[in-house]
Amino acid sequence: MAFGTKANDYTSPNTLRNMGEKTEDEANRPSRDDLLTEIKRVVSYYNSRLTETEFEFATEYNHQDFLDEFGDFESILDAGGFSVGVPNEEIIEDVQRVAREVSETDEPRAPTSTEYDEHGRYSYSLCRVRFGSWPDTLEAAGFSATDSHLVLPSEDELLGELQRLENEFGKRPTVTMVREHGKYPFSSYQTVFDAFSVALSELGYEFVQPSFTEEELLEDAVRVAREVDGALITTDLEGRGKAGVATYLRRLGDISEIREKVAKELIGNDISQEDVLEEIAEVVEVHGIGVSESEFQDASGLSLDVVYLFFNDWCDAKVEAARNVLGGEWLVLSEINRVMDEMGEFDVSTSEFADRACVSMTPVYKYFDSWAEAKGQAHLF
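^ that's the sequence the OP posted. Answer follows.
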């Protein structure tokens, strides 16, 4: 007990818990929903195969909070719906189970991605990683993404649709034609004929397996990067790419590797995300976390156009560079210092800091026991 504190002013942590109130540590600890949201953000933005060390560096929360809540790293990924050992067949069966569960009639209907997140054993994000998009997931499960009902057209209907595509485009129907212009989902051909090649053979074609070369995938990723005019994320490839996002990730590497390959194609030089972070960190260390884009451009030989091939926001780029190169504690102290300088006073509240800072209060409590301690350390920084 601190000197000068009256005994009846002190309430023990156990007493607080019995009263239904949270201790200071518990109040500062993120909720399970917050942790789940953070797991999905980190894995989706970086890649689904990241290591525990990479995850620890990428998240704003204290890694111990995840371990306390979920157990080990594998359990953390499992909780977020990124179970790497789950076969695709089990995911498809679970989508079909949810379809039966949410249907109001005896006929199953395709669940929405939100319904699957609420009722599924896995997650919408995992489905995107495995199948490329939610419509592709529904097709794999035997549903039509357009009318939300289980579709099993007859052989004649499917062959008639292939003939329509053949007449419209003047050549042999392809998987891309079926996906982009067809009346029925591609999975219908796989279900009814066992394989798309069998359907084509019924029309007299010798089937040649369609595929994208790595060069074609990279060329398409470069096209998408030009369209979005910024750093690629998986949803860009999912919404604009010619192939499913899982194809890009499987053939070209994780999203960071794809960004690096796209950058090389666009600027003609080999440059990694780590190179960009180190260059930003050098400038941030000298000029502070508040350095502007123009100040960075004056101090660095690296073009902002290159920075924006890897990051979509200057604040995010600075924060990532500081966290990964200079350390999370350096980042927090620098941001507190910057906000105090900006406001011209030491007595900055947590809400004022949250409104002005590039980081949330979460990493503050990762490194310091209280806001007062963090401000004191920043004042001496």
